[in-house]
Amino acid sequence: MTATVGIIANPASGKDIRRLVAHGSVFDNNEKVNIIQRALRGLDSLGVGRVLAMPDAFGLALAAYEKAQVGLDFELLDMPLQHAQEDSTQAARRMAAAGVGCIVTLGGDGTNRVVAKGCGYVPLVPISTGTNNVFPIMVEGTLAGLAAGVVALKVPGVRKAAVRMARRLDILSEGRLVDIALVDVVAYDERFTASRAIWEADKMRTVILSRVRAGSIGASAVAGYLPQAADARGRGAWLELGTGGEAWRVQAPIAPGLIRPLSVRSLRWLAVGEGGTIVHAPTVLALDGEREITVQAGRPLEVRLSQNGPHVVDVLAALRAAGQAGVFVHER
After folding, report:
1. In which residue ranges of the chain is pLDDT below 70?
2. In this predicted structure, what is the pLDDT of residue 218?
3. Were both Cys, which of 94, 145, 150, 316 would link to 155 (CB 3.0–4.6 Å)?
4. pTM surpassing 0.85?
5. In whole angstroms, how far apart are CA 151 and each of 76, 148, 155, 265, 311?
């Protein structure tokens, strides 16, 4: 069977309102085309036979293919477009059904969240082109293509060495899964999703994290800048914020160039399977930086840390394992 890699590039990533209310840089679509082009050349050099790409209004993947001058077969998914995040979920679902060995994504935390809802067990190589980039990584497109290629080609030892299952946060209503987040869930003191992005620190009431990291942008940074961060030991965190009885006042970068003080009233660590109930209502829940769910009074939602996130490729580990398997060495 021909090794196949999927490509999902979000044309809207890196362009939300945080360019106006904060200092986020604009990640233009021409650069996304260039990244995909380099990834295609990496795939082609390994002998990957086929690429399935998500169509979009800007034609990112098709433009990259036309520039790349590669020999692999290229195909756009035959799917209706809603020009919304549901397109990425649907594309991931169709790619998984088509048997792709790996999916390369271009976007931020929000893009990868919706891809994770459809990709099943297919590993992701997430390239950072968004605003909040805790889940995806800053990686050169060529290397991303090579890593995706050795995974799709099932090079011996690569999957074991380089593919891990990420955590996620499950949002539940009466025990039923409503949605997921990969990095953070924030109870935000608004009643409407509106512009989706969050940037006002005084409206953040509860912050739930799948991981604790100081080197990140967004709500996920809050716990990482507390003195107790070293005690996390790989666990998630649940923080209640608000003035009056606060235990800590912490400065955190909640958006690019936007460092704000937040009053932390309580902190507890979360092991896999642990969580709690959102007590603030009415409010909206922001998932990985974007407002998605309205919480009504009398209809509480639960958030729980889960190990059932998407499979993710460690690019450096994949390339190292492929090198040890002799993939890049040719006899004279």
Report:
1. 1, 14-27, 131-132, 192-196, 332
2. 85
3. 150
4. yes
5. 21, 5, 6, 44, 12
